Amino acid sequence: MMFPAVKAEEKLAKKTVSKEDDFQTSSQKSMLYTFPLMTVLFGMSFPAGLALYWLIFSGFQVWQQYQTSGWGGLTPWLLKMRLLKSERG
Description:
Blueprint: H1 3-15, H2 20-45, H3 48-69, H4 75-80
Helix pairs in contact: 1-2, 2-3
């Protein structure tokens, strides 16, 4: 759901002269993939209640994000898995 923001930042970073923006966008893109993986790995070593708490509230946050701004970057994946109907019909 967060990918449109990252793609917009990547386009903006390419237009700027300084290289700090490129570093920030690459770090942000890396964190989008590594943090969920780290959460799963840490959740396997912590008590089950904490992992269950993380799972439930992550699902709640996805629902909140959907309610406020739609599917965002998940739209192409959901269309590919045929969980969403195409707007073209």
